[in-house]
Design brief:
about 50 residues; 2 strands; alpha+beta; FAD/NAD(P)-binding domain; two-stranded parallel sheet; elongated
Length: about 50
Amino acid sequence: MQEQFSRTELLIGKENIEKLNKSKVAVFGIGGVGSFVCEALVRAGVRKICLS
């Protein structure tokens, strides 16, 4: 696990961090709300994001 996700791991657990790393997320609309959603997903540890 990377150091940047150590606090998130304390909050949701190691198994759930691994689930986030393996998940794929699509975000439709990168406007006012979508941009914040994308940032939150990346900060949470999601690695594959499809932007539309």
